Structure formats: structure tokens, C-alpha cells
């Protein structure tokens, strides 16, 4: 089993014919992902990468039963693209776009809260269920199928963690890059909960960074629900000067309790297996699963 995406997902690409959409859609198709078409307003009726192009998401839902969307739309139009997908009934919306104005995302969050959809991102690497569906920009060859779930704010650390887990002989069920913006759809806790409830995930790797309270909220939820599966935690930014923000817009440091060290202490208090370095993630996975 997997979460969010699998071989049966009917995936469309919003911003399909643009340079980013074209490049990453090609990679997704080559990986074996079930891309059923794409959306570029004004280009409906054409074919691109041997897939149909639609003018609207609703048209894609009606004609090819699209249920999952990945968004490569410029920042000024990305919020509208998310809301269009939600309105059309898309169940999983993965927004890769970086630099969406915070005010736009406030509107998006309010709009989708009553819709039956899940937003991942924005400003994220996407979601991958190895050997089934790559819905994002991650290097697919790193990921092998297995029983470890990954949740991460950082794209590069997602790839690092996956590489280590695979090299230790354990693969990945699903890896979810939640993104680092101040306002995102799926939080760390949301993603951990999905993997905690997945019967084929035996262990979860949770990667965070300085800024915000998402990791602390997830850790407290894990403890409150009984620590049903081992969770391994790493917080990036341990060497950052006091008060310094990370590269992500969401990493705005909020006082003495919002340092990497403080977050790591909270994780430990709540039963998370904390590693001091990303280089130790694979070793810890092997230890808790042996």
C-alpha cells in the first residue's frame, strides 16, 4: 500500500506545455507514472508528449477521469490553479511552484478547507511512491520500494534520507515533500499521520528545520496516539547563527524555543529517535527495524 499517489492515480500536469511542466512531465512519464494529460488554457485539443492537452481541469476530470494534479504554473497564477483543481474535484493537488504570495495562499487555504481534496506544497519537491508514481521533481532512481515512509520540508534532505535508507537495504513506501513556505497544505503532522495509518509503512523518517512549530506538533501527536511506529527525526539548521532564517520562506525563527536544539529536545521528549546529522538517518533506521 502507499499514501497519496500510486500506479492507479490518474495524474494531470497543470502548466503542461511550459518548459518546467514539459521537462518534469517527461521525467514522470519515463518513470512510469500514469500521466493521463495536462492543462494549458488556450491549447486544449492539442497533443503534448503524446498526451491530450485540455483547456481546464474540469475538462480533464470529465474526459480522462483525472484525480491527481501536479502544478507547474508561475507564482502569480498558481493559487488560481490550485483552486481550479479543488473546484473540479481533484483529490490530490501537488503544487511545486515556488514564490506564491502569502496573501494568495491565505485565500487558497480558506477556499479548500471545505473541499474533499488534499494539497501538498507549495514550494515542494512533490510525492513519490517508488516504482509506481513519481509526482514531482525528485530524482526517481534514488528511490526503491520498501517499508519506510519519509516526510520532509527539504527536497535535498528527502533525497539524502531515501538514498541512505535504500543503501541500508530498506526501501521507501512513500516520500512526501511538504514544502517550506509559511502556508502549506499538508503539514508534517498530517503527513506523519498518513504514514502512521499505512499498514505497509513500518518506520517513518521526519525531517524538519528551524522555523515554525510543525515538527513539534507532529511529535506531540505521535506521543499522544501511542508511538505506534518508530519515528526518526532530524532538524536542519543546527549551526545557524542565532535568529538566522533558513532558505525557505517558512523558516522564520520565532524566539529561544525555535532553535534546532530546542526542536530536537521536544522531539526526544515525545519519543522520537533523533539523529544529530543527516548522515546518521540510515543507521538509525537499521537500528529501529533490526
SSE diagram, text form:
Blueprint: E1 11-14, H1 19-31, E2 35-39, E3 47-48, E4 51-54, H2 57-64, E5 68-71, H3 75-88, E6 92-95, H4 102-112, E7 118-120, E8 126-129, E9 133-136, E10 145-152, H5 155-167, E11 172-177, H6 188-196, E12 203-209, H7 214-224, E13 231-236, H8 260-269, E14 273-274, H9 281-289
Parallel strand pairs: 1-2, 1-5, 2-4, 5-6, 6-7, 10-11, 10-12, 12-13, 13-14
Antiparallel strand pairs: 3-4, 8-9, 8-11
Helix pairs in contact: 3-4, 5-9, 6-7
Summarize the structure.
This protein is an alpha/beta fold and 290 residues long. The protein contains 9 helices and 14 strands.
Task: Report on the architecture of this protein.
- The protein is built from 9 helices and 14 strands.
- The protein is of the alpha/beta class.
- It has a 7-stranded mixed sheet with strand order 3-4-2-1-5-6-7, sandwiched between helices.
- It starts with 10 loop residues before the first strand and ends with a helix.
Amino acid at each position: 500500500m502507499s499514501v497519496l499517489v500510486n500506479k492507479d492515480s490518474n495524474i494531470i500536469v497543470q502548466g503542461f506545455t511550459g518548459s518546467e511542466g514539459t521537462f518534469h512531465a517527461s521525467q514522470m512519464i519515463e518513470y512510469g507514472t500514469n500521466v493521463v494529460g495536462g492543462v494549458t488554457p488556450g491549447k486544449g485539443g492539442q497533443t503534448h508528449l503524446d498526451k491530450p492537452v485540455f483547456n481546464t481541469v474540469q475538462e480533464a476530470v470529465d474526459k480522462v477521469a483525472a484525480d491527481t494534479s501536479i502544478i507547474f504554473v508561475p507564482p502569480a497564477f498558481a493559487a488560481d490553479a490550485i483552486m481550479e483543481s479543488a473546484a473540479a474535484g481533484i483529490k490530490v493537488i501537488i503544487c511545486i511552484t515556488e514564490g506564491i504570495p502569502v496573501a494568495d495562499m491565505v485565500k487558497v487555504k480558506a477556499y479548500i478547507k471545505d473541499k474533499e481534496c488534499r494539497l501538498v506544497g507549495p514550494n515542494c519537491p512533490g510525492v513519490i511512491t517508488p516504482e509506481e508514481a513519481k509526482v514531482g521533481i525528485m530524482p526517481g532512481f534514488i528511490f526503491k520500494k520498501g517499508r519506510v515512509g519519509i516526510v520532509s520540508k527539504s527536497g535535498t534532505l528527502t533525497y539524502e534520507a531515501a538514498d541512505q535508507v535504500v543503501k541500508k537495504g530498506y526501501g521507501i513506501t512513500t516520500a512526501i515533500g511538504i514544502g517550506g513556505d509559511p502556508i502549506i497544505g499538508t503539514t508534517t503532522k498530517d503527513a506523519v499521520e498518513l504514514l502512521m495509518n499505512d499498514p505497509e509503512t513500518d518506520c517513518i523518517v521526519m525531517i524538519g528545520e528551524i522555523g515554525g512549530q510543525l515538527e513539534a506538533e507532529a511529535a506531540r501527536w505521535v506521543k499522544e496516539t501511542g508511538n505506534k511506529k518508530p519515528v526518526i527525526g532530524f532538524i536542519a539548521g543546527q549551526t545557524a547563527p542565532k535568529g538566522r532564517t533558513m532558505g525557505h520562506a517558512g523558516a522564520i525563527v520565532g524566539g529561544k524555543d525555535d532553535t534546532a536544539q530546542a526542536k530536537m529536545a521536544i522531539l526526544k521528549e515525545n519519543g522520537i529517535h533523533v539523529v544529530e546529522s543527516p548522515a546518521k538517518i540510515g543507521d538509525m533506521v537499521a537500528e529501529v527495524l533490526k
